[in-house]
Write a structure and sequence with these properties.
- By secondary structure, this protein is mainly α.
- Helix 3 crosses helix 5 and helix 6 packs across helix 15.
- The chain has one domain.
- It is globular.
- The protein is 78% helix and 0% strand.
- Pfam families: Chromate_transp (PF02417).
- It is found in: Cell membrane.
- One of its GO terms (cellular component) is plasma membrane.
C-alpha cells in the first residue's frame, strides 16, 4: 500500500456531504467561513486538532486566492486525498455558484439590490464574523504578547488597507514570533496528518506556472473570447492576495473596461454574492453567466478556483515537512496572532461598514449575536431569522 492511501482516513462522499452542508449554510464571507470550518471540522467532527487547523489557516493566508476555500480544499485532501480536495471544493462552492447564475439570469429584469432580506443577510454576517473573531482570539491570541500583535495588526490593516499590507504584516508577525516568542511554550504539533508526495507537489507547481505564463501568450496567438475569459479569471485567481473582497477591484478591472459586463451588472452581482453562502469568488460564475450563459459560468468558475487547488496541492507537502520544527512553530504563533488581527480589522471594514447604517441595524446585529453566542442556535437558523428581520426593517422604517 502506498503512503498516500495509508494516510486517507475518510471517503470523498463523506467530505462532499460535510462540505455541501457548509456550502449551504456558511454565510458571512471568508472571515466567518474560517469560524464555520473550525466548528465543523475541529470541534464537531475532530478531523484535525486545533493546532493543526490554526497552522493550516496560517499557511493559506500566505497563498494567493480565497483563503477559506483553500482551507476547505486542504482539509478535504488531508481527509480523502486529491479527490477529497475536489469534493470539498465542489460541495462548498457549487450552491452559491448556482444561486448566482440564477441571479444573473434575472438581474436585467428585477432590481434586488435593495431588498430588505438581502440587507438582513449582510447584518447577520457582522454577528457571525464577531463570533468567529472571538473564538479564534481566545485560542490564537490568549496572552498579552500575542494579543498585542493582533491589535497592532488590526490597526495597521485598517490604516493601510491593501492586499499586500496583509501579506507584509503576516510575514512580520512570523519573524517576530521566530525571534521573540518562547520556544518552551509551543505545543507539540499533532502526529498522523497525511502528506502528499513531493512528485505530485512539483507537478502541481509546474502546471500552475505554465498556465499563468502561457495563457496570456496563447490569448495573443489565438484570439478567442473563451480563451481570454479563462486567462483573465485564472490570472485573478492566481495573483489576488487577501481573498474575499480584495478580488472585487481586480475582477472589475478585467471585465468592465473590456465591455464584457456593465458596471451596474457588476455591482448587482457583488451585492448578491454577499447574500449567498459560500466563497465570494463565486462572483466569477455570475460574471461568466452574464457573458455567456451556463457554459460561461462554468468556465469562469473553474478558471477562478483552479489556481487555488494547484497551490494547495503544491504547498501541503511543505507544510507537513516543516510545521513540527520548533522555530517554525514559533513563527506560526506570531502569524496566527496576526491572522486574528486581520480578521478583527475585516469585522469593521468591510463587514460592519457595509451592513450597519443606523440603530435599527445595530439592534438586529445584537439580537443575532445573542442568538449565536448565548442561545447557541445553529447559524442557518440565525441567518433565516435575521433575513426576516431585515425585511421587516425595510417595511417599517
Amino acid at each position: 500500500m502506498d503512503k498516500q492511501s495509508e494516510t486517507k482516513k475518510g471517503t470523498i462522499w463523506e467530505v462532499l456531504g460535510v462540505s455541501l452542508k457548509l456550502g449551504l449554510t456558511s454565510f458571512g464571507g471568508p472571515v466567518a467561513h474560517i469560524g464555520y470550518f473550525r466548528e465543523e471540522y475541529v470541534k464537531r467532527r475532530q478531523w484535525l486538532d486545533e493546532k493543526s487547523y490554526a497552522d493550516l489557516v496560517a499557511l493559506c493566508q500566505f497563498l494567493p486566492g480565497p483563503a477559506s476555500s483553500q482551507v476547505g480544499m486542504s482539509i478535504g485532501i488531508l481527509r480523502a486525498g486529491l479527490l477529497g480536495g475536489i469534493a470539498s471544493w465542489a460541495g462548498f462552492t457549487l450552491p452559491s455558484a448556482l444561486a448566482l447564475v440564477v441571479f444573473a439570469m434575472l438581474v436585467r429584469s428585477y432590481d434586488l439590490a435593495q431588498s430588505g432580506w438581502l440587507h438582513g443577510l449582510m447584518i447577520v454576517s457582522v454577528a457571525v464574523v464577531a463570533q468567529a473573531v472571538w473564538g479564534m482570539a481566545r485560542t490564537l491570541a490568549p496572552d498579552r504578547t500575542r494579543g498585542t500583535i493582533a491589535v497592532l495588526t488590526a490597526i495597521i490593516t485598517l490604516i493601510w488597507p491593501t492586499a499586500y499590507s496583509q501579506l507584509i504584516l503576516i510575514a512580520a508577525a512570523g519573524i517576530f514570533g521566530r525571534l521573540f516568542l518562547p520556544k518552551a511554550e509551543i505545543p507539540k504539533a499533532s502526529e498522523g496528518v497525511p502528506f502528499l508526495s513531493k512528485r505530485i507537489a512539483v507537478i502541481s507547481w509546474m502546471l500552475f506556472t505554465i498556465l499563468l505564463l502561457g495563457l496570456p501568450l496563447l490569448r495573443q496567438l489565438y484570439p478567442s473570447q473563451w480563451l481570454a475569459m479563462f486567462d483573465s479569471f485564472y490570472r485573478v485567481g492566481s495573483l489576488v492576495f487577501g481573498g474575499g473582497h480584495v478580488v472585487l477591484p481586480m475582477l472589475e478591472a478585467e471585465v468592465v473596461p473590456t465591455g464584457w459586463i456593465t458596471n451596474s451588472q457588476f455591482l448587482a452581482g457583488y451585492g448578491a454574492a454577499q447574500a449567498v453562502p459560500g466563497p465570494l469568488f463565486t462572483l466569477s460564475a455570475y460574471i461568466g453567466a452574464i457573458m455567456n450563459g451556463w457554459l460561461g459560468a462554468l468556465i469562469a468558475l473553474l478558471a477562478m478556483f483552479l489556481p487555488s487547488y494547484l497551490l494547495v496541492v503544491g504547498t501541503l507537502p511543505l507544510w507537513g515537512a516543516i510545521r513540527r520544527r520548533p522555530n517554525f512553530q514559533a513563527a506560526l504563533q506570531g502569524i496566527n496572532a496576526a491572522v486574528v488581527g486581520i480578521l478583527l480589522a475585516a469585522l469593521f471594514n468591510p463587514v460592519w461598514t457595509s451592513a450597519i447604517h443606523n440603530a435599527y441595524d445595530f439592534s438586529l446585529t445584537l439580537a443575532a449575536f445573542a442568538l449565536l453566542m448565548l442561545w447557541k442556535l445553529p447559524p442557518w437558523v440565525v441567518v433565516v431569522l435575521t433575513a426576516v428581520g431585515g425585511s421587516l426593517l425595510a417595511v417599517l422604517f
